[in-house]
Design a protein that fits this description.
By secondary structure, the chain is an alpha/beta fold. The protein folds into 2 domains: about 5-80, Translation initiation factor 3 (IF-3), N-terminal domain (Ubiquitin-like (UB roll)); about 85-170, 2-Layer Sandwich (Translation Initiation Factor IF3). The protein has helices at about 35-40, 65-80, 100-115, 130-145, and strands at about 15-20, 25-30, 45-50, 60, 85-90, 115-125, 150-160, 160-170. The chain has a 4-stranded mixed β-sheet with strand order 2-1-4-3. Strand 1 (about 15-20) and strand 2 (about 25-30) form a beta hairpin. The longest helix is centred in the middle third of the chain and has 18 residues, at about 65-80. The radius of gyration is 29 Å and the shape is rod-shaped. The two termini are about 30 Å apart.
């Protein structure tokens, strides 16, 4: 969206001719910029360049302060509709007990149902690093326990002494 700094108004408009739209949204046609400015000043309003890239540029006759306020309002509404996705992390070791694993999977399921993404991390210590397949096995068991309740966004990867995968909420099938 445009900000106040890069919108040209009144005498700042450099083009010799402009396509004019009046305050009611009706087209007045292509006029010399001087004539368009005179029209705007007669009505006590501003001539605002709304589409500078068009040929000739499109200008509207309107109250500039009100226009800026409306633009800001649209930006705020767009920001409200954006959803922040949180990433939760669950850590474990490759030699995790079955009950502990079930407990962690229950938490992962809760996070996914809230719409969060979950980074599942298996930390290797010491000689455990020689048996990376144990970490992969743990991550695969988690996927099997969650079943269709999750969407695997990245497969198991090693990063230093940790192996991780990223899970997202299950994708809903949209029919229609």
């Amino acid at each position: 969206m445009s900000t106040k700094k890069n919108i040209r108004i009144n005498e700042m408009i450099q083009s010799k001719t402009v396509r004019v739209i009046d305050e009611n949204g009706e087209q007045k046609g292509i006029l010399p910029t001087v004539e368009a400015l005179r029209l705007a000043q007669e009505k006590g309003l501003d001539l605002v360049e709304v589409s500078p890239t068009a040929d000739p540029p499109v200008c509207k006759i309107l109250d500039f302060g009100k226009y800026c306020f409306e633009q800001e309002k649209k930006l705020r509404e767009a920001k409200k509709k954006q959803k922040q996705i949180k990433i939760k992390e669950i850590r474990m070791q490759p030699k995790i007990d079955e009950h502990d694993l079930a407990f962690k999977v229950k938490h992962i399921g809760e996070f996914l149902s809230e719409g969060c993404k979950v980074k599942v991390t298996v930390r290797f210590r010491g000689r455990e690093l020689a048996h990376k397949e144990l970490g992969e096995d743990v991550l695969n068991r988690i996927l099997n326990m969650l079943g269709p309740n999750c969407n695997q966004e990245s497969s198991a990867r090693m990063e230093g002494k940790t192996m991780f995968m990223l899970l997202g909420p299950a994708l809903k099938n949209k029919k229609g």
